Structures are given as C-alpha cells and as structure tokens.
Amino acid sequence: MLCSQVGYQFDDIKLLQLALTHRSASKGNNERLEFLGDSILSFIISDVIYHKFPDIDEGQMSRLRAALVKGENFANMARELELGKYLKLGAGELKSGGFRRDSILADAFEALIGAVYLDSNEQQVRTLIFKLFESQLANIDLNRAIKDPKTRLQEYLQSRRQAVPEYEVIKIEGKSHEQTFTVSCRVEALEQPVTAAGSSRRKAEQAVAEKVLELIK
C-alpha cells in the first residue's frame, strides 16, 4: 500500500521498515537513513534549481532551495504520503501523538529517500524526487521563494516609507536540544504585535514576518 503511494517498489523491504522506525522504538532506527536522505534531497534539488532557473544568482538559489528543502515541507509531503500511519514509534511517542509531529514526519520522509537510494541507484531516486516535487517546482512563485519573509516585509514597509519592523523574543520553551522560540513583531500598520513560534529564533522571526505580510497586504 505505502509503496504504491510513494511510487516505488522496494526490493529490500527491510530498508523501508528501517526508514519508518523512529529512535524511540529501537536502536536500529532511521537516523542514518535520515542523514543520507537529507544530503540526497539537498543535492538533487540544488541540481534541479541550477538548471531550471539559469538567471538567478547563488544567494537566490540558496533561498529557493531552503524553501523546498526544509522540515516543514518534508512533513507536509510525508502527510500526503500518509507516512504517519506506518511509523514504528516507542510507547511514549505513540501516546503523545508522535505520528503527527512535524519533526518525526520530516525525518521519516528524509529516511525514505535514503532508503530508496540504497535500494536502487541515483537515477531512480532522482526520478522519484522529481515526481514528488513536480507540482511544487512547476507552481513555485520565484519572486516569493528567493526572498525570505523578513526581507520581503522590510522591503514592503520601506517602499511605503514606514519604519522597519521590531522583533522581540518573548518566550523560549523546551530543553536545550529541542527549544521553541516565540517571537513578536510590531509594525506601524497594526495596532497589536503579531507572534509566531519556531525551533530557532531565526525560524520564529521568519514565521512571524510571513504572518505580518499576510495581515497588511
């Protein structure tokens, strides 16, 4: 069932099983496959961007890749493939709903790509990645993707002769290796500051800038 959803039939089904095994469930888990899959995705998407968008510079290429090769995007793709239904999790993660957690889903998606590579070859995993990312690459808003939300917000405000946004970290939660940052952003056009959270200060600032843009445009 999952193989048909993914669009790839494994010769070694144990690789697929390993890709779906979280570290909470076993010492033999998907962390190494995740590492491999992350590298493969970064390389192949970089190659696609290089050839598909010949007129953008290195910085723009990096931002475009970051818009595609990121945990949030991988988690959403994992949901589309319904990977959560097949994950092998420890009792604690099962109880806390780990099969819905972005970080676990994103890791499983990366591990899946690593598993396909080991089960086949570069050309087959490239073909699969093209298929999985086809609609995103076809419909991507280049102007939006090559500029991060903070840059777009600042340019939008400056073009209207408004003050630059003010960001402030208002909360940090969680253990040191898995923190969540909550950041507020204040702009002239809104009476109240807007807040958003992320796994780093930078990600939280980008997220809140995106929310502000949606509110003021």
Task: List descriptors.
3-stranded antiparallel β-sheet; Double Stranded RNA Binding Domain; 2 domains; 11 helices; 9% strand; 217 residues; single chain; mainly alpha; Ribonuclease iii, N-terminal Endonuclease Domain, Chain A
Overview of this structure, please?
The chain is mainly alpha-helical. It folds into 2 domains: 2-145, Ribonuclease iii, N-terminal Endonuclease Domain, Chain A (Orthogonal Bundle), CATH 1.10.1520; 149-216, 2-Layer Sandwich (Double Stranded RNA Binding Domain). The chain has helices at 2-6, 13-19, 31-52, 58-68, 71-80, 91-95, 102-119, 122-139, 142-145, 149-159, 201-216; strands spanning 166-173, 180-186, 194-198. A 3-stranded antiparallel sheet has the order 1-2-3, covered by helices on one side. Helix 2 (13-19) packs antiparallel against helix 7 and helix 5 (71-80) packs across helix 7 (102-119). The chain is globular, with a radius of gyration of 19 Å. The N and C termini lie far apart (43 Å). The mean pLDDT is 92.
Write the layout of secondary structure elements.
Layout: H1 2-6, H2 13-19, H3 31-52, H4 58-68, H5 71-80, H6 91-95, H7 102-119, H8 122-139, H9 142-145, H10 149-159, E1 166-173, E2 180-186, E3 194-198, H11 201-216
Antiparallel strand pairs: 1-2, 2-3
CATH classification class of the largest domain: Mainly Alpha
Number of strands: 3
Strand content: 5-15%
Give me the secondary-structure category: mainly alpha
Distance between the termini: 43 Å
What percent of residues adopt helix (DSSP H or I)? 55-70%
Please list the strands of the largest sheet in the order they lie side by side: 1-2-3
Shape: globular
The fold-level CATH name of the largest domain is Ribonuclease iii, N-terminal Endonuclease Domain, Chain A
The pLDDT mean sits at 92
Radius of gyration: 19 Å
